[in-house]
Amino acid sequence: MPNPADASLKDASGARAFPITAERLKSLANVENLPEGLPAAVAWRDGQVRLLDQSRLPEAVVFIESADVDEIADAIRTMRVRGAPAIGIAAAYALAAAAEHGPESMTALRAHLDAAAAQLRATRPTAVNLAWAITRTLRAGAGADTTAELRSRLYQEARAIHEEDVSANRTIGALGAPLLPAEGGVLTHCNAGALATGGYGTALGVVRAAREAGQRHTIFIGESRPLLQGARLTTWELMVDGFDVRLVSDAAVASLFAAGRIGAVVVGSDRIAANGDVANKIGTYGLAVLAQAHEVPFYVAAPWSSVDVASASGAAIPIEQRDPAEVTELCGIAIAPAGVRAENPAFDITPSRLVSAIVTERGVHRAPYGPALRAAEKGEAVRV
User: Fold this and answer.
1) How far apart are CA 130 and CA 77, in angstroms?
2) pTM of the prediction?
3) Catalytic-residue membership of 270
4) Which residues contact 99 (CB under 8 A, 6 or more apart)?
5) 165, 270, 277, 308: the active-site residue
């Protein structure tokens, strides 16, 4: 079996690439917590951050390996690594790499890290996990007396964030699986799976845990325009993992509800406000409206690091506005007249009144969400 690090597997740009086959995918399954066959979205390798370049999926599996904060920040900004938990982990490892390869003077090293943190924070404003992971990683190094201790502390904290995310995903899956019907259709949106997290997934962790418990579902996946995360990533991830999947155009989803083919909706989240309003990939709000209209439960699955108790409601959550070319072009090919103006918000806000339950590793939270989330923040017992 060829080693993915072999030079023969590099593409024309010098990046590591190889065709997708079951055998080669299994050769990459070296992260114990990942579903079998899936490469890690984020990993630490010998002082460098290794990122699965998700802009190349599903055509090729390509890795970016770098200790350069500029390169890692660009990968986050351009969504070559994406998913709120995954970019938080990537940023934490980026700080560890910046420390590992930074100045030897403590004063200079701390200034170097502060600059790296500011650069990483600025990449994507909506996902609260990013700022949370950066703050936590820097805080871990605050009391270090030597540069060696500082470097060690930052790496250990980044590793802990990664491991805790995987554990949280599995707990979310176990808590969320009983909410799904025993069989039938489950709809998801964008990608909230192993590719978007440290491993296993949030929304897709729920369907994985349901399958492990003996439930049998057909997973319906909207294409998730404009960047097609559902079509490119979720279908690929679940097919590699052996699920029964159906890809549908975003415009066809309402007809599935009307035909009674959707028994539940489960999505992830980039930020959850204190009142339970949910920021997630653009198009999520529309699915929640459809779910309510057809009396189908709508569940949100996310780690507690996605809960932002400082944002009173969805109105306080900044919505990232991305390049209009993502709407007017598809794979670099113009699909709209030259000069047309386009709107491209990356996220929308689903009001808490449309959410049947929010599932985190701290429990299954139900309305009224303000008191429920405050209780979970304090560590009080959660109603399931």
Assistant:
1) 12
2) 0.88
3) yes
4) 109, 112, 113, 141, 147, 150, 151, 154, 155
5) 270
